Amino acid sequence: MKKGDHLFLVDGSGFIFRAFHALPPLTRKSDGLPVGAVSGFCNMLWKLLTDARDTSVGVTPTHLAVIFDYSAKTFRKDLYDAYKANRSTPPDELIPQFGLIRHATRAFNLPCIETEGFEADDIIATYARQAEAVGADVTIVSSDKDLMQLVTPNVHMYDSMKDKQIAVPDVIEKWGVAPEKMIDLQAMTGDSVDNVPGIPGIGPKTAAQLLAEYGDLDTLLERATEIKQEKRRQAIIENADKARLSRELVRLRTDVPLELGLEALILEPQNGPKLIGFLKAMQFTSLTRRVADACDCDASAIDAIDVPVEWGAAARGPDLDIAQPEPVAGGIPDVAGESVPVPAKANGANGREGTFLPGDLAKARAEAFASLPFDHSRYATIRDVATLDKWIADARDTGLVAFDTETTSLDAMQAELVGFSMAIAENDKDPTGTSIRAAYVPIGHKTGIGDLLGGGLADNQIPMRDALPRLKALLEDESILKVAQNLKYDYLLMKRYGVETKNFDDTMLISYVLDAGTGAHGMDPLSEKFLGHTPIAYKDVAGSGKSNITFDLVDIDRATHYAAEDADITLRLWLVLKPRLAAEKLTTVYERLERPLLPVLAHMEARGVTVDRQILSRLSGDLAQGAAALEDEIYKLAGGRFTIGSPKQLGDILFGKMGLAGGSKTKTGQWSTSASVLEDLAAAGFELPRKIVDWRQLTKLKSTYTDALPGYIHPETKRVHTSYSLASTTTGRLSSSEPNLQNIPVRTAEGRKIRTAFISTPGHKLISADYSQIELRVLAHVAEIPQLTQAFADGVDIHAMTASEMFSVPVEGMPSEVRRRAKAINFGIIYGISAFGLANQLSIERSEAGDYIKKYFERFPGIRDYMDSRKQMARDKGYVETIFGRRINYPEIRSSNPSVRAFNERAAINAPIQGSAADIIRRAMIKMEPALAEAGLGDRVRMLLQVHDELIFEVEDADVEKATPIIVSVMENATMPALEMRVPLKVDARSATNWDEAH
Known about the structure:
alpha/beta; Rossmann fold; Alpha-Beta Plaits; six-stranded mixed sheet; 46% helix; 11% strand; DNA damage; DNA-directed DNA polymerase; DNA/RNA_pol_sf
């Protein structure tokens, strides 16, 4: 543990009695077992963990433990035999629940700590002081006054029932003394519950007054004869020894011998199956459902575990002794609960030989693989079924296999499977996990000789009819974790062959979660970065340019070196990167936002969308005519013909021949004619630049969409299948390619016309469901702006409200120009717009734009605070976070180059907003198909496209009315149950036969 970490210490015993006394009795339906306290405990702990892991709620712990009383017999009994003697034995119905609650704690993947001879409060005090000593912060989850003596500027308490933080000022306000004087105050007042004697007749208020006058208990007792009130003076003098004894009883020990050190309390990722197995055993249906949803688990596929129940003498209440689970020797549990190998002789942070924490494991593996050579001579070519069966059996025994396909095309919708490679870690030979063997299985290589189709199959391969069933069994076996790099391609390819890949990890997505913004996530850069190895280039195997051949024509021996190396690299990358997710507290981001979205996108890509060729052809002609008309106008304005698409010729005309101001030259010495330059000239009133901008827009629409889209229509499905990338933006936004369907202009009439070509098939409608102003809603949530929050809650026009706030103009009858300016400011602020940028956008003076921005921040000061905090976070940590904990890294935020630094600061402001919006729609997409299936619409409602804040579905006509509210509900509640937004999300949904009319 180090400075900056945050330790949560949960008073488990306090949780138990709160749960038991606050809730009505509850028994397990199957056998009548009392489980009310267990239920309350689990719900309290689940809420605490959910809030704790949610960075938008408050502080986020790095370490957490639940502390229990071991027994009623402690060192205090030796000091005073009557200590707690007046406490009655626990109720019979509570006794069996003590042990169950300890089982529950471990099911939550949390340390369950108790020490013989000491109370839970002493253990908490010891951990708190140890953590404070190394500079960490501490939150004690309890409202017990006995623990208030521990409160310091770095140690707080948290009353989870009242959702209230207890800091130094709160202790003073409640008790009249600072936390360090709570021991003396309690020594004077005593405690009837614990049978601490104290001084009769002295209550908290009197004790506080005496301590304020005399300073401390010792001084008070020494000067007791000076007290004027006779009765009070006599009571203090006569009970001085009781006061001193009471002080030792209430003083918490900070030297408890602890079996687990601070590093062992690191907050591990939630193990969904493990927790669900326990909850199902307890028959807690509602909590099971919430946990399954939050952990993205299929509860129906998880069996209840066997939880022993101890009654009577075997269950001694606080005396219950359940041994702590020993750390796994030579390994550490991964998120699935299995053991993964670590260097056997290395010492972990907890000092135990052969045991590692996630950070240790990540570091050890990175060091091991950074210098481990690749031996291509060891790669095998699997040419017979018996050998393939043996490799698959070994993969099943190991439970882990890296997998990659080799095909004839980069288009997964049209590629043919040529072969596949596997890599397996030989843990039985080397427990460090660094001994890896890899192989390639050729199944579709051709000779390239003989016929027009590329030749017959090469000899000595496993026939497709024999290999495919075995590959299907491997990929669909949920007991084997399949690891791939950019798995979505392989997933979609194999889906076309009737194989649904199950239980997988993607090294590209893991890298993206860990290091978004710091570099590329492709195999080659990752290999060079983490393994110190440059992979074999594809062109070195298949050639390039005119000599390029498809992979099915590559020599099998050469193919083996290339393909097996890919699998080898993938497995090494997984071994290096996967532990970092837990070490860096990013497992939840990967498990909730990345991994489950992969099959969703693959299914969407496989479905595709219908595009009307005739509409595109007609639009192409219209655009050509429009561009031709503009060309004539441009030539007249320029005084002659020239190549409009030539930046050099255009620059010479604008800044040479016409002598327009504001020109600048590029590094090549040519005049810059970028879009921003032309827009600035157009805004200044020059007609020729405006015509050039319009001409560029029309010709781009024609070349990029109306002319190009027909070429993307699949020859078999007759639909267009775009490809989504999960890891190409820094903020979590998806990108679309081949073709890019996310950049079709919607603010121009021509752009909207292109959307009319995207149509539903006969008997169906397209439903477009679009988040309304989601980024402004996210801003209102994260910056906690009361005016914006209230406006969204009331459903008012947010831009009109902003204009009213800024310009003191009534909303009713507001001029459209005033609202337009407010709208520009609202959206501009999100992107860190400057006065210069706003001036250009609104065609006003820069000084006036600067005044607008200044006034905006004066009216909404929370936004400036938010922006400053994000910039500071980026400077301090090198990254910012979305509301779901996604990290966006900005390594150049401290650059000495002012322009680079300013760019990173603007990005750091916008990224949490844009990234949070992206995370929200990701969650909606992940939840959508299960929700539709539950409503019986799984086969009749198909999610086709995602375009930033919009989802497009194809729905049978008869199901439109039923499907629409389900789609809207899923999207509007996408943040739940992980996060409840301060402002409501709103989705607009419409249906039509084409995309434009539905939008």
